[in-house]
Amino acid sequence: MSAHLLSNLEKSLSKTQLSTISVECKFLKASKRPRRERKREKNTTSAGRRDSVAWSKRLGKVAQESRERFLSLAEETGVPIVAINLRGRFIYANEATSSLLGYSREELLRRPFRQFLHPNDKARILRLFAKTILLRRQPTELEFRVMRKDGSIRHVWSKPTRLVVGGQKAGFQAIMVDVTERKQMHEEI
Questions:
Q1: pTM for the full model?
Q2: Sheet strands (E) in the chain
């Protein structure tokens, strides 16, 4: 069609008629695609969904395997590993923590962390944890004493890190090292 004829046609039709023609042209254009092309599109969408479901299952399996590897590592190591929530309660303690403190894991998980701190170190450690939460600083290396169930005292070194779950602060996690013997040797010298 020539530009002049098209211009005259546009002038003689109302806006509603023009928009109807436009929609009909698009529909005709789309329906003129070969049937197998439309079928391929449909199959691709179904395959895409199948791939997505398969991917989700695989991702879930990988996450589960990763969790199991982490728990195996944390449980089998000879070093105490803990996680403490923002209220100061243990939410995880491995078997080595239980051995260090002389309490069963069930007993540990029912008690707040501050209960195991030596009375002379308690205020300092709790102040550091509060400052870390309020000022959003990463905790520093700490050396403090813990009280075992039998009343004996152990010296511990730790460098806790913030525990973040789902982008939110959830508490602290730490590996603790019993430095009691080293401390005693140092005092003897």
A1: 0.63
A2: 81-85, 90-93, 142-147, 153-158, 161-165, 168-178
Q: Across residues 15-36, what is the average pLDDT?
A: 49
| pLDDT tens readout for residues 100-145 | 999 999 999 989 999 999 999 999 998 888 887 777 777 678 899 9
Q: Which residues contact 126 (CB under 8 A, 6 or more apart)?
A: 88, 114, 117
What pLDDT is attached to residue 189? Answer: 73
Q: Report the alpha-carbon distance of residue 81 to residue 58 in Å, rounded.
A: 29
The domain segmentation of the chain, as residue ranges, is 78-188
Quick check: 117 and 156 in contact, CB under 8 A?
no
- Residues, the chain: 189
Q: How far apart are the first and last CA of the chain?
A: 104
Residue whose tokens read 């000022």? 135
- Contact of 174 with 90, CB cutoff 8 Å: no
CATH of domain 78-188: 3.30.450.20
Angle 61-162-59 (CA atoms, 0-180°, nearest 5)? Answer: 10
